[in-house]
Amino acid sequence: MNRGNYIKRGFKKKCPACGEVPLYVEFLKTYKKCKSCGIKLSNYKSDDGPAYLTILIVGHIIIPLVLLAEKKLSPSIYFQMFFWPLLTLVLSLWLLPKIKGAFIGFQISVDDKT
Q: Rounded CA gap, 101 and 78, in Å?
């Protein structure tokens, strides 16, 4: 199977092997085993990689937006102190499980012998 399919399924927070069932029991805790295809998801660890990549991506989105807003709109300091941290938090929490799923999908695609 194409490596990209595993990564896409993981990014969608589905089992990378079958794409049928959710990948996570909780926010970032994966099931030990897929209920549909039986793959042992506990064998695949993502450690700190997804967090580093999330920080990199969110930083590259937020910083240019902050600079553009300051240059073009010059919003009040109170708006900036509220809005930018909130946007950073929301983007990070939305993106982190998706990137972790993609990491797990990549690992499964490397192990796939077909």
A: 36
- Exposed/middle/buried for residue 94 (C-beta within 10 Å: 0-12, 13-18, 19+): exposed
Read off the pLDDT of residues 38-87 as tens digits, 9 standing for 90 and up. Answer: 999 999 999 999 999 999 999 999 999 999 999 999 999 999 999 999 99
Neighbours of 110 (CB within 10 A): 10
DSSP string, 42-76: GG---TTHHHHHHHHHHHHHHHHHHHHHHHHT---
In order of 33, 46, 70, the CA distances from 52 in angstroms are 26, 11, 27
Model confidence pLDDT, tens digit, residues 83-108: 999 999 999 999 999 999 999 999 99
Backbone region of residue 108 per phi and psi (left: phi > 0; alpha: psi in -120 to 50; beta: other values): alpha
Residue with tokens 């805790």: 29
**Which pTM was predicted?**
0.92
